[in-house]
Specification:
binds 2-acetamido-2-deoxy-beta-D-glucopyranose; biotin; disulfide bond; 2 helices; single chain; eight-stranded antiparallel β-barrel; Avidin-like_CS
Length: 155
């Protein structure tokens, strides 16, 4: 067995020191002082995205692995490009990003916010617009869909 993780160590020591608070595993990024979005997230449909650390202007890249592509297609990674309001690790910034799907001519834009509930659980609350390619101007009216997803940190 390996060394106990920091979280477990804190949990073990907590009863000894009063006022000590256990960090939920999901806030490991916070403990490391990372950007609140950085890491791996999964939505209710099983799609996974990895958000890379932002630069000093709040720009970030990442990859999106969708589980809801057409049945004959296996999941494939698509690049994403985003911007967030720079914020401390415990804050709740808004953000947006674009996914350029590698398996179709479609593009999705997401907007969202990182939220932390009273129990310390993080989630990304998002809404999206998906544009599919219309083959002619007459088809454009039906080419955009709207939806939403909630992501939780993959532990
Ligand atoms: C994101 O990717 C683009 C293109 O690959 C690159 O030019 C840019 O520096 C990257 N940004 C960050 C914040 O990593």
């Amino acid at each position: 067995m390996g060394r106990p993780s920091l979280v477990r160590l804190v949990a073990l020591l907590c009863p000894i020191f009063s006022g000590c608070r256990v960090l939920p595993v999901g806030r490991a990024a916070e403990a490391q002082g990372q950007s609140p979005l950085t890491g791996t997230w999964q939505n209710d449909l099983g799609s996974v995205m990895v958000l890379d650390p932002p630069d000093s202007a709040g720009a970030f890249n990442g990859t999106y692995l969708t589980r809801v592509a057409a049945a004959h297609q296996r999941p494939r990674e698509s690049p994403l490009y985003g911007a967030l309001h720079l914020a401390g690790p415990s804050e709740q910034p808004t953000f947006g990003f674009t996914v350029r799907w590698t398996f179709s001519d479609s593009t999705t834009v997401f907007v969202g916010q990182r939220l932390v509930d009273a129990a310390g659980e993080e989630r990304l609350d998002t809404a999206w617009l998906l544009r599919e390619r219309a083959d002619s101007p007459d088809d454009a009216w039906k080419a955009t869909r709207v939806g939403g997803n909630t992501f939780t940190r993959l532990k």
